[in-house]
Design goal:
This protein is mainly beta. It has three domains: 96 residues, Immunoglobulin-like (Sandwich); 115 residues, Cadherins (Immunoglobulin-like); 97 residues, Immunoglobulin-like, CATH 2.60.40. The chain has four helices and 27 strands. The strands form ten sheets. A four-stranded mixed sheet has the order 4-11-10-7, with no helix packed on it. Strands 13-20-19-16 form a four-stranded mixed sheet, with no helix packed on it. A three-stranded antiparallel sheet has the order 5-9-8, with no helix packed on it. A hairpin with a 5-residue loop joins strand 25 and strand 26. It is rod-shaped and about 165 Å long. One of its GO terms (molecular function) is calcium ion binding. Its main location: membrane.
Length: 362
């Protein structure tokens, strides 16, 4: 008895259609009707993911993903066909038999960043059963747009005595790409060899970087560049080989704008006599012709006309009862005749003064 084996059916025969004998033989208790047993009682079930990603501008007919569903029924009841519901025109097609979701039109992330697709899996039973699911297709960004300045022409004025760090103006550019592809950084591309100005890479604020001098340079024509950061994605790659490979395929896009900066003059230069000291000779006992003309002095002012460089002349010290000076022309005249035996030499101290604000004199 210890070696005798008994067999029983423990599960899988709910209708008691089978029996098992002591020798392990399994037999049917009655005729089975296969069509009766294989009823369409199972719905298709999706086993593929509900979210996928696809690069924008990808070529048509590219496979996005394989949509897959299972049906535990047999024969026609387990045969599945796939249907993409289109209540609007979509840039995708779906293979009814193989479930291949393909690109059928242009994908532009800037126009549309994602698509929610309604997909139905339906068997061929009578009546058929179906299951509906939604597939989210995210469109990944490609660096296909340039930064754009608006406007492309800027102008500003700054005083030559502006403090270092003083703000001149702020430029602006936008890039409709995403992430590093759409992040804009600014630089001065040309027109400022002396680096008198700086620009914030992030904000586009232009500032005074060095002491300005109107007399050295009164006008700047700067070219400002706005560049995206697409290549930063390559630099972020951990491997050197990966970085070098990406740098050969990824190229930053850019735009340029023109910035004119006018340096406004301030009265920071004193008039300077060109030939000081001056020397003149006069005959005694006579008044020179032309209303006693003795000599003409001249001073130069480096500041901007008309006020900062308009010079007027004055006698500061000396015999003002014997000499006079034309304030506008600098002509010195003798008022009456001189006597060499009384005084052989006269020394006059002259002042040249401009007419600008913060008057300078020499």
């Amino acid at each position: 008895d210890n070696g005798r084996i008994e067999y029983t059916i423990t599960s899988g025969d709910d209708n008691n259609d089978f029996e098992i004998f002591s020798n392990g033989t399994i037999r049917t208790r009655h005729l089975l009707d296969r069509e009766t047993k294989n009823v369409n009682d199972e719905e298709p079930r999706f086993i593929s993911p509900n979210v996928t990603e696809m690069q924008e501008n990808i070529s048509t007919n590219t496979v996005v993903m394989v949509i897959k569903a299972n049906d535990r029924d047999e024969g026609r009841n387990g045969y599945i066909e796939y249907i993409l519901e289109q209540d609007q025109i979509l840039p995708f097609t779906l293979g009814a038999v193989d479930g291949l979701l393909r690109v059928a039109g242009k994908l532009d992330r800037e126009q549309r960043a994602s698509y929610t697709l309604n997909v139905t899996a339906r068997d061929r039973g009578e009546p058929s059963k179906s299951t509906r699911t939604q597939i989210l297709v995210k469109i990944l960004d490609e660096n296909d747009n340039n930064p754009i300045f608006d406007p492309k022409q800027y102008s500003a004025s700054v005083a030559e005595n502006a403090s270092i760090g003083a703000m001149v103006l702020q430029v602006s550019a936008t890039d409709i790409d995403e992430g590093a592809n759409g992040r804009v950084r600014f630089s001065i591309a040309s027109g400022d060899d002396n680096r008198d100005f700086s620009i914030s890479e992030d904000s586009g604020i232009v500032r005074v970087a060095k002491n300005l001098n109107y007399e050295r340079k009164s006008r700047y024509e700067l070219t400002i560049q706005a560049e995206d950061c697409a290549a930063d994605l390559a630099l972020a790659n951990e491997s050197i080989e990966g970085r070098n490979k990406l740098l050969t395929t990824i190229e930053n896009r850019y735009d340029i704008a023109e910035l004119t900066i006018i340096i406004s003059d301030i009265n920071d230069n004193s008039p300077t006599f060109l030939h000081s000291p001056y020397l003149a000779n006069v005959m005694e006992n006579v008044i020179p012709p032309n209303s006693g003309y003795v000599i003409q002095v001249e001073a130069y002012d480096a500041d901007t006309p008309p006020f900062n460089s308009l010079v007027r002349y004055f006698l500061k010290e000396g015999d003002t009862d014997l000499f006079r000076i034309n304030a506008s022309t600098g002509e010195i005249s003798l008022l009456r005749s001189l006597d060499r035996e009384t005084k052989a030499e006269y020394i006059l101290t002259l002042v040249a003064m401009d007419t600008g604000k913060n008057i300078q004199n020499r």
